[in-house]
């Protein structure tokens, strides 16, 4: 009770249900903490404090009236500004977007509100979610809670920064090449990219079936709780899966008998030594929990870069601006990415998708033929200064941030489940993430392993370190 804002969502919801704290008290505590941190973080596109407090008062009235309460009743959440929230604009990190308030909630937002959650505002992202650093033309730099001036990662920048600072327990992120897991890695929190189609994403993007939506939190249990609320079939998203999501563990998860592959580089990725050593030192935690762990090089690993770049370029092509004046308002890196791929023909794009489908089949078949999970670094580098696409000690490129993010996009391409959990810190005190990945529909297994890991290797957040 000393700081309601930094409790887990599970704890906040329990306090509300048992009337030991009110939704008003919890929401006010989160908003006060945001007010203290936000000048340093720059994590919000739109902070909606007045409407959040009004919703909290209504939630309190429901508690006092003895009404049925949802699993997130009175729990504050933030929403990445790529998803619609009624009454707020959806700016997508771009000066070229429509500033008019949206008249409806995205399905996952409606589900959160239906479960009793209180939306406190919309968080920053990179323009159109194109890059994994934390800067956009619309909002400027979002800063890492561990060290001001360092990137919080992206594209779900504000969500991860708020989670790392203890400004609420639950945050909605999206992920097309790592945009949930990479900022989670940089900010020392948990980020889960669900199986493609597990969570409705509306309007469904025409970007090659890359976009996933999922939770960013400080605990695996909270990520699972949010996923239980937002997952499931929805008529407005034709690719959503039936059945929803339910966690399959209670207490200390059992990993006995699981076959876990560990790959330090997927057979091709450059990794900074401090990152590699932290992940290597963390892997025995899975063996201690009963899993069989073997270091491997997946045969599909080295194929990733040549498949991902044109797929990512195709995904960015809808944002071509022919008007030079409008293009000047666009992120320079996004413009450079578009320029590299705007000459692709339909046949080029079609061939790229064919290669992607074969790659996805190979990844998922590899899991099916003997591996339950794969453990890798979440990224090759720790947080570096804002305003850059690559750390200073890496080769410079006008747009290619993927060079240090080779571990995340394979599971966007294959539609598998993947989660980043913190596993250590650099010599400079910055967080390091470890990725646990699986095949399609392996979300419960991935999260069970993530929970087991963090029970064995607890990690103190930025505000407690």
Distance between the termini: 19 Å
| CATH level-two architecture | Alpha-Beta Complex
Total count of domains: 1
Task: Name the CATH superfamily assignment.
Answer: Amidase signature (AS) domain
CATH-assigned fold name = Amidase signature (AS) enzymes
Please list the strands of the largest sheet in the order they lie side by side: 1-3-2-8-10-9-14-15-13-11-12
CATH uppermost class? Alpha Beta
Which structural category do the helix and sheet elements fall into? alpha/beta
Describe this structure in words.
The chain is of the alpha/beta class and 465 residues long. It has one domain: Alpha-Beta Complex (Amidase signature (AS) enzymes). The chain has helices at 9-17, 23-41, 49-64, 107-114, 157-165, 181-187, 220-230, 273-282, 284-288, 304-316, 324-327, 332-341, 346-368, 410-413, 443-456, and strands spanning 44-47, 76-80, 118-123, 135-136, 140-141, 143-144, 147-151, 170-175, 190-193, 212-217, 259-262, 292-295, 373-377, 418-425, 431-437. The strands form three sheets. The chain has an eleven-stranded mixed sheet with strand order 1-3-2-8-10-9-14-15-13-11-12, with helices on both faces. It has a two-stranded antiparallel ribbon with strand order 4-5. α2 packs antiparallel against α3 (49-64). The mean pLDDT is 97.
């Amino acid at each position: 009770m000393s700081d309601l804002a930094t409790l887990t969502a599970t704890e906040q919801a329990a306090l509300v249900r048992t009337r030991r704290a009110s939704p008003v008290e919890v929401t006010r505590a989160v908003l006060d903490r945001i007010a203290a941190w936000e000048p340093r973080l720059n994590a919000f596109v739109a902070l909606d404090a007045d409407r959040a407090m009004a919703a909290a008062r209504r939630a309190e009235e429901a508690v006092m009236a003895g009404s049925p309460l949802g699993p997130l009743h009175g729990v504050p959440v933030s929403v990445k500004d790529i998803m619609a929230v009624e009454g707020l604009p959806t700016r997508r990190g771009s000066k070229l977007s429509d500033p008019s308030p949206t008249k409806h909630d995205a399905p996952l937002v409606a589900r959160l509100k239906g479960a009793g959650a209180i939306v406190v505002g919309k968080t920053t992202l990179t323009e159109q979610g194109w890059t994994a650093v934390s800067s956009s033309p619309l909002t400027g730099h979002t800063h890492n809670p561990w060290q001001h001036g360092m990137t919080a990662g992206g594209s779900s920048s504000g969500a991860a920064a708020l989670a790392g600072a203890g400004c609420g327990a639950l945050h909605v992120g999206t992920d097309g090449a790592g945009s949930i897991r990479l900022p989670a890695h940089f900010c020392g929190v948990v980020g889960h990219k669900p199986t493609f189609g597990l969570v409705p994403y509306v309007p469904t993007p025409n970007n090659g079936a890359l976009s996933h939506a999922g939770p960013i939190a400080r605990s695996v249990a909270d990520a699972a709780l949010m996923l239980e609320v937002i997952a499931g079939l929805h008529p407005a998203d034709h690719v959503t899966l039936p059945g929803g999501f339910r966690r399959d563990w209670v207490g200390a998860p059992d990993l006995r008998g699981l076959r876990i592959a560990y790959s330090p580089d997927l057979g091709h990725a450059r990794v900074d030594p401090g990152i590699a050593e932290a992940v290597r030192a963390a892997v025995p935690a899975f063996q201690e929990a009963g899993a069989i762990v073997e270091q491997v090089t997946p045969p599909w690993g080295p194929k990733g870069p040549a498949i991902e770049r044109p797929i990512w370029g195709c995904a960015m092509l809808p944002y071509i601006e022919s008007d030079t004046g409008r293009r000047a308002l666009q992120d320079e890196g996004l413009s450079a990415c578009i320029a590299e791929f705007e000459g692709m023909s339909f046949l080029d794009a079609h061939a790229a998708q064919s290669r992607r489908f074969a790659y996805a089949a190979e990844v998922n078949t590899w899991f099916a033929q003997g591996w339950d999970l794969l453990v890798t670094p979440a990224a090759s580098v720790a947080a570096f200064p804002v305003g850059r696409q690559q750390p200073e000690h890496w080769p410079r490129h006008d747009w290619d941030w993927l060079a240090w993010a080779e571990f995340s996009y394979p599971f966007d391409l294959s539609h598998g489940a993947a989660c980043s959990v913190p596993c250590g810190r650099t010599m400079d005190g910055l967080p390091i993430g470890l990725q646990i990945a699986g095949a399609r529909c392996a979300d419960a297994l991935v999260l069970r392993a993530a929970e087991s890991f963090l029970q064995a290797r607890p990690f103190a957040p930025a505000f407690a370190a």
